[in-house]
Design a protein that fits this description.
The protein has helices spanning 27-38, 127-149; strands at residues 14-23, 53-54, 61-67, 70-81, 85-90, 98-109, 112-123. By secondary structure, the chain is of the alpha+beta class. The chain has a seven-stranded antiparallel β-sheet with strand order 1-7-6-5-4-3-2, covered by helices on one side.
Length: 154
């Protein structure tokens, strides 16, 4: 049975978040901080730890390992070009029919690194995700910046 939802337009089925993050750190340090923050140092809402596994190679998985062969696949590495690009495709935090693409493009800028972040999605994007996604990515991206800008220990 196919059910049409009257009044549902393409804008109800799409999601687009774009952010620019200016980082006072080298391109290489910023890329490594990005991998760390999206991986083992990832955090959920209110700063609670939510470590992820990030296999940083083409086709590598990005997932939350809950132990005992339980977890949640967020996506796969669609493209990686160290230290200027990592791109993911997958459901991310959404457990319903949706396709997402997340891109981190890094470039050198005067005094550091510019990260251009883009999350685009298509499908049954629930309103709760639409409301929280911009702030959620903002928090993650700010943590990446903070991690990259930390003084390096000797």
């Amino acid at each position: 049975m196919i059910v049409n939802a009257p009044g549902v337009g393409i804008e109800d089925l799409t999601l687009l978040i774009e952010q620019e993050i200016h980082v006072r750190a080298s391109l290489g340090d910023t890329f490594e901080a990005l991998l760390e923050q999206l991986g083992p140092y990832n955090e959920g809402g209110e700063g609670r730890p939510m470590p992820m596994v990030l296999e940083a190679w083409p086709g590598g998985r990005w997932y939350r390992d809950l132990g005992n062969e339980n977890g949640h696949l967020w996506g796969h590495v669609q493209a990686i070009k160290r230290p200027t690009l990592i791109e993911f495709c997958g459901p991310l935090f959404m457990s319903h029919p949706v396709a997402n693409n997340v891109q981190y493009r890094l470039s050198e800028e005067n005094g550091g690194t510019l990260i251009k972040f883009r999350h685009s999605g298509f499908g049954l994007v629930q309103e709760e995700h639409r409301r929280g996604v911009n702030a959620g990515w903002g928090n993650i991206n700010d943590k990446i910046r903070q991690r990259a800008e930390r003084p390096k220990s000797a």
